[in-house]
Structure formats: structure tokens, C-alpha cells
Amino acid sequence: xxxxxxxxxxxxxxxxxxxxxxxxxxxxxxxxxxxxxxxxxxxxxxxxxxxxxxxxxxxxxxxxxxxxxxxxxxxxxxxxxxxxxxxxxxxxxxxxxxxxxxxxxxxxxxxxxxxxxxxxxxxxxxxxxxxxxxxxxxxxxxxxxxxxxxxxxxxxxxxxxxxxxxxxxxxxxxxxxxxxxxxxxxxxxxxxxxxxxxxxxxxxxxxxxxxxxxxxxxxxxxxxxxxxxxxxxxxxxxxxxxxxxxxxxxxxxxxxxxxxxxxxxxxxxxxxxxxxxxxxxxxxxxxxxxxxxxxxxxxxxxxxxxxxxxxxxxxxxxxxxxxxxxxxxxxxxxxxxxxxxxxxxxxxx
Length: 349
Fold this sequence. Notes:
There is one protein chain. The protein is an alpha+beta fold. Helices cover 38% and strands 28% of the residues. It has 13 helices and 13 strands. A 13-stranded mixed sheet has the order 1-2-3-4-5-6-13-7-12-11-10-9-8, sandwiched between helices. Helix 3 crosses helix 4 and helix 6 packs across helix 11. The relative contact order is 0.16. This is Acetyltransferase (GNAT) family protein. GO terms for molecular function: transferase activity. Residues 170-308 form the BioF2-like acetyltransferase domain. It comes from Saccharothrix texasensis.
């Protein structure tokens, strides 16, 4: 490992340090090292800002399907993707909680240097919770634009699975129990697999995963190589729903400490009503997590109203955008992006 730059508070490294203090899956060394091996984003340059035992990746990108999906949905394609990203838009969180302010200052200084060298146009810090966004702004000042990118959901686990069901409203609980019985009766089998067995399901999983992103003209967010890379992350698992030999649904997940995180997945919509595939997978995964002693499940983005109906807790994910030379057109484009995506997240878009 070499150090590309050292300042009083922070340093810029060319690889992930051996020891990292992480607050969630997405700033853990296992995740960051895995993501470096992927090619789904057009990565021209990258580094890792290190301060206070934590790290923050900086990526100079020429393209990012996930970011492109957001700007396409918002009708702001002129924003492009040739930017420095302080964390990937693929990660559910860049930072979930407060973090050392020196990380933000280091990422900002590095990005401005790369932008000044003509390697990028903007700095984008994506997928920051309210707490993390406040830390960032306190450290480097207000952005030229603040965009609500998405909302992700989680559930804290207490007691056992029966207690969990008991906390649901009576009508919803009875509906869930009926759907679970019906799924069992119709032969839906749900298994948690990992290792070579999980990799063997990737060809069948890919069309289910990419089939969830076409509602607003988004590009395919994953390819087989990226899904295989996800499964090489320490603690990776694949939840597979099957009827006989037909794959009806998949969730890509990760175990870390007392948490399980589900990043992406999909179901075969042709059998969704008959099998209640999504509900069955969600609740069988919850049952599995209770049995395994996990205390938190991160359920990921989108499907907002369903997740709220089932008692999951939402957290807004913000993108802070910085420019050394902001223009009125840029300010308006970012404001327009925020308006469209916020309306969608809140259910009025």
C-alpha cells in the first residue's frame, strides 16, 4: 500500500488499509475491496481517504449505470456521469452515521484537485443519511445542490419471529400468515445458500435482478460479473426461491456482525400473485435472521409503500453536489432532479 498524499488530518491511499473502522457493510474493508474488482462503473481513477481509522473511497468515473438511472428518471441527462463520487451510488450508504470530518475534507480536497486537472466535472457525495449529510456540510460547507436520491429501509429485531409477527396490525398479520401458508402449499421453497452453490444461480438470477429497474427507463444495473463479485464479499449469501427447479426469486445479501443486508434482488412476476413470492421471501428471511441471532435487517431501496406498510423504518439518502464553478443552469438542473425524485419517493410522482 502506498500513500498518494498526506495532510495533517487525512491521507489519500491507493488501496484499502488492512484495518478499517466501519459503521456498516458499505464502508467495511471487505465490501470496498470487492467493489474495486468490479467494472460495472467506468472507473478512471480511485483512491481511499483515510482519517480516524475510517476510510472514504473517491472514484473518478466516466459512467455509472446507477447514477445514470437517477438522472434519466429525473430528466436531467445533461448532468452526465463524468464526476468524482465520494462513495459509489451502488452502496446503500456511503456513510450511515456521523464520521470524522477530516474524511469529508480529504474527499473534497482530492475531488477538487482532480476536477482542476480536467479529470471530472463535479464532486458527488451520494447516499448520505441525514446525520452523515450534516457531518459533511459541517466539514466542507454547503453544496451547490442537495438531491434526495432514494430511501432505504431497515428493521430492528427483538424477541423472536412470533413476536415480530405479533407486532403487525391484525389484518396485515393474518394476510401474511395466509400468504406464507399458500406459498408452502404451492411448493415455493426458500433457501439461503452461499459459496459455489450461490454462484451457480447467477445466470438465472440476472434477469430477475435487472428486470426491476426498467420502470423509468433505467439501464441494467448489474451484469453476471458484478453479481459474482457481490458473492465474493465476505459474508455474502443468496436467498433463492424455487418451485421445483424453476427460480422464482432471489435476494443478494450479506452478513456482517449482527446485521443482514439485502442489496438487490428480483422475482418472476408471472408467478407473483399465485405464490406471493416477495412476501414469502421477506418473511422467511426475517424468520431465518431471528433463528440466526441477527438484530437488524437492512432491506434496501425502493418499494417504499410496501415496506412502510410492513413496518420497516425508512432513512432518506441524500446526494450532496459540489462544483468549483457552479452555474445557474447546474443549480436549476439539480433542483429539478430533487423535485422529481422526491415526488417519486413520497408517492406523488
